[in-house]
Amino acid sequence: MTSKTSIRSEIAIVCVSVFFLVAFNAAFWHQFVSALAPLDTHERLFIAAMAIVGFGLLALFFSLFTPRYLLKPGITVLLLLSAAAAYFINEYGIVIDADMIRNVTNTNPGETYDLLTGKLILYIVGLGVLPALLLWALPISYRPFWQDVWFKTKAAAVLVALIVLVLLPFTGTAMSFFRENRVLMRIFTPLNYVSAIISYSRGTLEAKARAPRPYGQDAHKAEVWAERKRKTLTVLVIGETARAKNFSLNGYARETNPLLSKMPGLIYYTQAHSCGTATAQSVPCMFSGQGRAGYRQAAGQEGLLHILQRAGFSVLWRENQGGCAGVCKGIATEAVGGATRKLFELAESPDENLLAGLQDRIDAMPGDGVIVLHMMGSHGPAYYKRYPAAFERFRPACKESQFSRCQDAEIVNSYDNTIVYTDYVLAQLIALLAERDRQGLPTAMMYFSDHGESLGEGNVYLHGLPYAFAPDVQKHVPFLMWLSPKLQADLRVNASCLERRRHEPVSHDNFFHSVLGLLDVKTSAYEPGLDLFAACRSAPAPVDD
Fold first, then answer.
1. How far is residue 158's CA from residue 162's CA, in Å, rounded to a whole number?
2. Which of 136, 274, 301, 455 would you call most buried, defined as having the most Cβ atoms within 10 angstroms of its Cβ?
3. What is the dihedral of CA 111, 112, 114, 120, to 10 degrees?
C-alpha cells in the first residue's frame, strides 16, 4: 500500500542523481570548464549538454539500485564512498583509476591514520552521513516487481535516447575534447571509482589464477667470481616519494644533500625516471625485469631477488614501509622499528632503524650478500612525521596532513626536510659500507626512488596520477650509487666511465639488468642493453686488502 506522503523510487533516483552531479563533482566541473575555456555559444551549450549527459549517466547507474531492499543500503554505501573520494580529489587533486585502487589496498594502517583529517570527517558527515539519514527517513513506494522492471526499461530507453540526442550536435566537440582530456573521466564520481574497482578486481583475479612462473632459472655467477678471494655485499635502497627536483645533487637551489654532496665516489644520475607514479606500480616494475612495457604481464613471476638467490647470493629484505608489493615473496624479510611492530604497520619508524642491527645482519650472511632497504622516505601527506625534529632545517614547516591548512611554501619546507633526513640516512649507510670495505669486505650501494611527488604545482598534490597525464615531478626521481674501491677492483667496474655517463637518460627499466650486470650474474633474463655497467667494465689497478 502506498503512503500519501511517500515518493516513487524513480523520483528518489532523480533527486539522488542531481545531488551526486552537483555535490560530488565540483572538481570535475571546474576542470571541465577550465579545460574547455568556452569562447562562443556552441561551447557554452556543450557545457549544458554535458550536464544533461552526466545526469543521464548517473540516473541510469542508480536505477540499478531501485529494487526495494537495495535502494537505501546501496545509495548509502555510495554516499559514504563518494564523500571520501570527493575529499581526496578536491584536497589533493588525485584521480581514481585501477592503479589508485591498488594503492589504497596497499596502504598500511599508519599511512591511513595520516590521511584521517578533520576535513575528511566533515566531508563524510556532511556529504555522506546526513544525506543518508535523510534518505532513510524518506518514505519510498515501489511498484510490483515485473511492473517495475517494465517501467525501468522504458525509462532507461528514454534516458539513452536523451543522452544521444543531446550529444548529437556536439559529437565532434565531445570526441576531440575528451580524447585530449581523458583524465576528467577519472574524477567523475561515483562512476570513476566503480569502474576502477571493477578493473582492479578483474586484474587481481586474473593474476591469482595464474600460477607463479619461475624466471631466470639459468642464473649463475660469471667468470669474475672465480677469481675473487673475499665475499661482497651490495645494498639496494628503495626510496619513497623522493623527487629529483628537490635534490641539491640535481641542481636544486636549497642544500638538501649536505652530506651526499661531499661523499667521495658518489655517482648521481640526473635524468632518471620511474616506471610508475606509485609504489604499487614502480616496485614490481623495478624487480620484474620486464620494464614499464611488460611488468604487468609479469605478475606472479619470480623477480630479481629470486634470481640473485638462485645464483648463490644471500638475500634479505628489510622493511620500514608498507611491504614489498610481492617482490620479496619467498625471500628472507624483516620489519624494523621495534619488536612489537608488525610488517605493514610501520609508519612512525624513522628510516635510521633500517641501519640498526645492520652490522650484525652483514656479519651473519654466509658468502656474498644482497640486502634491500625499503625506506619510508618522504611519504605524504604527513611529511613532518618522516624526519626527527633535529632535521627540520627549513621553516616554517607544514605540520598537517590537511594541506589546505598550510601554505604551499610550508608544504615544500616540510617535504625538503624529509630529503635532508634521507641524505643523512644514506650518508650513514655509505660510511658503514666504507668502513667494511677498509676491513676487507667489498661493498656497493644503489639508491633509486620509487616515484616522485607533486607539491601543489597546478594545484596537484601527492602522487599516483596516470603515467600519461602525470607531471614530470611525479616521474623524475633521484638515482645514485656508491661503489667501494675494493668492489670496483674485484668486479672490474670503471667508476670514471660511470661518472662520465651520469647525465644520460636512465629509468627503472635499467635497475634489474644493472644489478645483474654489477654482480656479473649471467642469465637469459639479462639484457646487456639495459645494464648501465655493461659499457664500463675494465680492469682497474689492484687495491690492497
1. 6
2. 274
3. 150
Is residue 112 a part of any domain in this protein? yes
Alpha helices per DSSP H over 349-478: 358-364, 408-438
For 60-112, give the secondary structure using H, E and C: HHHHHHCCCCCHHHHHHHHHHHHHHHHHHHHHHCCCCCHHHHHHHHCCCHHHH
198 and 235 part of one domain = no
Give residue-wise pLDDT tens across range 328-363. 988 999 988 643 333 333 346 899 999 999 999 999
The answer to whether residues 171 and 281 belong to one domain is no
The structure's pTM equals: 0.77
Residues 245, 114 within the same domain = no
d(CA 9, CA 13): 6
CA 227/CA 30 separation, integer angstroms: 66
C-alpha cell at 265: 665516489
Structural domain boundaries, residue 518: 229-536
Residue type, 368: D
Cα separation, 125 vs 118, in Å, equals 11
Strands 443-449, 266-269: parallel, antiparallel or unpaired by DSSP? unpaired
* 244 in the same domain as 196: no
Same domain (yes/no): 302, 187: no
Each residue's pLDDT tens digit, 20-68: 999 999 999 999 999 888 888 988 999 999 999 999 999 999 998 888 8
Domains in the chain, number: 2
**Which CATH number fits the domain that encloses residue 258?**
3.40.720.10
Per-residue pLDDT reduced to its tens digit, 252-292 = 999 999 999 999 999 999 999 999 999 989 999 999 999 99
DSSP for 294-323, written as a single string: HTGGGTTB--HHHHHHHTT-EEEEEESSS-
User: In terms of domains, do 199 and 65 share one?
Assistant: yes
Same domain, 186 and 281: no
- Low pLDDT (below 50) residues in the chain: 1-3, 211, 338-347, 540-541, 543, 545
What SS3 class is residue 34?
helix
Q: Maximum distance among all alpha carbons in the chain?
A: 96
Pick the closest to residue 13 from 74, 85, 86 (CA basis).
74
